[in-house]
Amino acid sequence: MNNKFLYLLTAIITVVPTIAAQAAQVELGVFKSVNAPEKNCPQKVVVTEQNAPYYEGGYTVNGQAKLGSFAGPFAIASSDLFSVTWVANLKPAYRQCVAGGGIVKYDNEDYNSSSHLRIRFNRGKVFLILDMTGKRDANNFTPSITKKGVSNGNPTWSWSGTD
Questions:
Q1: Quick check: 98 and 36 in contact, CB under 8 A?
Q2: How do the domains of the chain map onto residue ranges?
Q3: Tens-of-pLDDT digits for all 163 residues of the chain?
Q4: Contact at 8 Å (CB) between 126 and 139?
Q5: Distance (Å, rounded) from C-alpha 121 to C-alpha 138?
Q6: Sequential DSSP letters for 44-94
Q7: Which of 33, 44, 49, 86 lies closest to 69, judged by CA?
Q8: Rg of the chain's alpha carbons, rounded to an integer?
Q9: What is the dihedral of CA 58, 153, 84, 107, to 10 degrees?
Q10: Residue 62 phi/psi, 5° resolution?
Q11: d(CA 146, CA 70)
């Protein structure tokens, strides 16, 4: 084999895992309720999701939401096989917010798929929802939530699918 080809192949193998490990910014749009349009709400919410290193037969996405600027600390309110909901009290400036939202951008690209992350503001609380319902992987299986928790008062999660 040509030495230049081997060098290029080595460079690709070295760089590709680094690229895959970068966290994607996930922007959730916040849409005020028609019943309370004048209330103070965050204009958008940004969380991160990051692909875990590849493994044979599947993939995992790790996420976290640092939402301390308008709420906290979070706790898990409910969960089942397909979804988890975190809840926190809103800070005083946002307590009257009545709104809902979902993903509008994923890694700075417009997002037009079913939103697996949603947010709801109501009665002085904020609810962050991770929901795999309606999402499918390459083999038409519903991805599984493999981790749900709270770290330093912020929601953390992992979900996995097959490839």
A1: yes
A2: 22-159
A3: 444 433 333 333 333 343 445 799 999 999 999 988 888 999 899 999 999 999 999 999 999 999 999 998 999 999 999 999 999 999 999 999 999 999 999 999 999 988 999 999 999 999 999 999 999 999 999 999 999 999 999 999 999 999 9
A4: no
A5: 33
A6: EEEEEEEEPPPBTTEEEEEEE---TTTB---EEEEE-SSEEEEEEEBPGGG
A7: 44
A8: 19
A9: -50
A10: -105, 140
A11: 27
- 3-state class (DSSP) for residue 18: helix
Which one, of 115, 112, 111, lies nearest residue 102 by Cα? 115
Going 61 to 100 to 128 to 144, the CA torsion angle's sign is: negative
Place of tokens 């097959």: 162
Are the CB atoms for 125 and 70 separated by under 8 Å? no
Tokens coding 31: 């849409």
Which tokens in the block code for residue 139? 């083999």
